[in-house]
């Protein structure tokens, strides 16, 4: 495997590991930010009633998935878990279309787009894991 692939995988995975660990250990304001989205998801998917538990579990999934990706373990599984976690995280945390203040709206749109780019990076990592090795 090329050095560039190893570095790219480690940089991508480490971001999820660090941010996921923070969410799992100190969910804080993320719980309130996730409440409306979790309520909408509960209409379709049975989830535990405790929003904090879900935020912590989501953070743990990101931390573990990110560590696995960084280490090159189960890359297709880890990228799938991370993508499945990132989509609701992005929708819950960066609903820029609901923000009235122009500056806050712009900030949330930038964060939404950053997460979309991270999702694209996961797609590349998933596809790369299916390639024959160098």
Summarize the structure.
By secondary structure, the chain is mainly alpha-helical.
Walk me through the structure.
The structure is a single chain. The chain is mainly alpha-helical and 134 residues long. It has one domain (3-129). The protein has five helices and no strands. The chain has helices at 3-25, 30-42, 51-71, 75-93, 102-129. Helix 3 (51-71) runs antiparallel to helix 4 (75-93). It is globular. The model has no long low-confidence stretch (mean pLDDT 93). Keywords: Membrane, Transmembrane, Transmembrane helix. This is DoxX family protein. It comes from Nocardia panacis.
What is the overall silhouette?
globular
Oligomeric state as shown: single chain
Q: Write the element-wise H/E pattern from the N-terminal end onward.
A: HHHHH
What portion of residues is helical?
over 70%
Number of helices: 5
Structural class: mainly alpha
What's the number of structural domains?
A: 1
Gap from first CA to last CA = 5 Å
Membrane topology: Multi-pass membrane protein
Subcellular location: Membrane
Protein name: DoxX family protein
InterPro entries: DoxX
Topology readout:
Layout (H helix, E strand, L loop, with lengths): L2 H23 L4 H13 L8 H21 L3 H19 L8 H28 L5
Helix pairs in contact: 1-3, 2-4, 3-4, 4-5
Keywords: Membrane, Transmembrane, Transmembrane helix
Protein name: DoxX family protein
Pfam family, one: DoxX
């Amino acid at each position: 495997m090329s050095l560039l692939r190893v570095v790219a995988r480690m940089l991508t995975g480490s971001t999820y590991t660090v941010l996921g660990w923070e969410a799992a250990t100190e969910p804080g304001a993320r719980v309130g930010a996730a409440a409306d989205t979790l309520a909408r998801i509960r209409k379709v998917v049975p989830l535990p009633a405790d929003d904090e538990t879900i935020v912590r579990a989501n953070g743990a999934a990101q931390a573990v998935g990110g560590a696995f990706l960084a280490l090159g373990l189960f890359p297709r599984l880890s990228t799938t878990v991370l993508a499945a976690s990132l989509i609701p995280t992005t929708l819950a945390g960066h609903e820029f279309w609901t923000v009235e203040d122009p500056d806050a709206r712009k900030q949330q749109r930038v964060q939404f787009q950053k997460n979309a780019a991270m999702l694209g990076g996961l797609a590349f990592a998933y596809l790369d894991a299916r390639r024959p090795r160098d």
